[in-house]
Amino acid sequence: MFQHSEKSQLLLAKLKTFMDEHIYPNETAYAEQLHRAENRFAPLPLMDELKEKAKAAGLWNLFVPEDHAQYCEHGGLSFFDYAPLAEEMGRVIWAPEVFNCNAPDTGNMEVFMNYATQAQQDKWLKPLLAGEIRSSYAMTEPQVASSDATNIQLEIKKDGDEWVLNGRKWFITGAMYERTKIFIVMGKSDPQNPSRHLQQTQVLVPKDTPGITLIRPLTTLGYDDAPIGHAEIVFDNVRVPLENVLLGEGRGFEIAQGRLGPGRMHHCMRLIGSAQRSLELACKRAASRTTFGRTLSKHQSVREEISKSFSEIEMARLLVLRTSHKIDEEGVAASVDMIAATKTTVPLLVQTVIDRCMQMHGAGGLTEDYFMAEAFNYARWCRQADGPDQVHQMALGKKIIDRYADQ
Ligand SMILES: Cc1cc2nc3c(=O)[nH]c(=O)nc-3n(C[C@H](O)[C@H](O)[C@H](O)COP(=O)(O)OP(=O)(O)OC[C@H]3O[C@@H](n4cnc5c(N)ncnc54)[C@H](O)[C@@H]3O)c2cc1C
């Protein structure tokens, strides 16, 4: 089970070399370009240079699964084989975009692969796969508890040969980014339908459609995650043609269910990389700082913290691999138990590991001079994005009780 294919191993070796040659040496330059940018949500020249290099190196669209091999040059990878690659990318928060493997675009591209018509794919999926444009997935709303997707209120009404959208969304990742051109918007088209799961529809809305206003960029723990960012958006009589519907009227909930499983796993894979890098930095720090006559590394409590962190990263990695293997063998639908177990365990474990490593770096660990603060923010928000932990625990708990109660 723990042997990755030769293809995955070769790609990982190439990716590690690429990270050493092009990503780590550019971390300072990237931060400087972002700090100097007049518009924090404009594409950075460095990102474009690195994307070209990644394409040339054959490290492009690595997220594309085997059953969608026709959409990439490398022939697709199993979940299990993609896990170590996503982990490697997670060692630098902005690195996944270099390889066209960042959220939310990977999840959105999979929506286009699974549910879009040929015409919709030609118009949006092709430039997304080429990294020319970016996309957003707009579901969450400020005025309702959106962890219950049946609550959402944005109105989608038919008027002649158009859909008309009215409502407000927030925390829409990528919407601020200048390169983002298309929103996948979920709203209610049939609020009176007796089935709460057939009331929703998803439509494709070009970002420049009249009636769309980007209200503000949002931050989490002070981070704006620019240039991709998260936005609050108002839709005021936004009109798109009927053919912009995805899959069909009333099928929005079904798409939402299908989209979020793989995306949750990808976050967990990347987070393992963020934790592993934090641990490595903490070990270097512990070996090089001295308090009370000896290096930090010689204090018992520091060794305990390092040992706990190492063990927890190993646990988290094994869980990700176990779930990935199950998805490959049995599919996403049959793996929802393991996906929920992973989604509710890994971000919290990683957050704790990163917190310990931050502490060992003293005051500096809390600043942007080091990797940990931004990585901590990433782990923390992954406990909320794609549904809060409690909702997944509610569903998983029920499933497990049902499984064993009558035995
Ligand atoms: C950085 C970031 C990026 C995001 N990106 C996107 C995006 O691109 N597109 C998008 O549509 N959304 C996005 N989200 C939003 C995210 O999916 C929602 O925040 C999440 O689904 C929860 O919805 P809510 O914020 O309305 O919380 P609410 O539904 O109001 O829930 C609040 C809290 O109630 C508790 N709770 C809820 N249900 C239960 C329960 N059954 N049992 C016990 N406790 C419960 C939980 O503690 C939960 O955190 C993003 C969020 C963040 C932080």
TrEMBL record:
Pfam families: Acyl-CoA_dh_1, Acyl-CoA_dh_M, Acyl-CoA_dh_N. Residues 137-238 form the Acyl-CoA oxidase/dehydrogenase middle domain. It comes from the Bacteria. One of its GO terms (cellular component) is cytoplasm. Residues 250-400 form the Acyl-CoA dehydrogenase/oxidase C-terminal domain. Its cofactor is FAD. Keywords: FAD, Flavoprotein, Oxidoreductase. It comes from Pseudomaricurvus hydrocarbonicus. One of its GO terms (biological process) is fatty acid beta-oxidation using acyl-CoA dehydrogenase. Residues 6-132 form the Acyl-CoA dehydrogenase/oxidase N-terminal domain. InterPro entries: Acyl-CoA_dehydrogenase, Acyl-CoA_Oxase/DH_mid-dom, Acyl-CoA_Oxase/DH_mid-dom_sf, AcylCo_DH-like_C, AcylCo_DH/oxidase_C, AcylCoA_DH/ox_N, AcylCoA_DH/ox_N_sf, AcylCoA_DH/oxidase_NM_dom_sf. This is Acyl-CoA dehydrogenase. The keyword Secreted does not apply. Homodimer. One of its GO terms (molecular function) is flavin adenine dinucleotide binding. Belongs to the acyl-CoA dehydrogenase family.
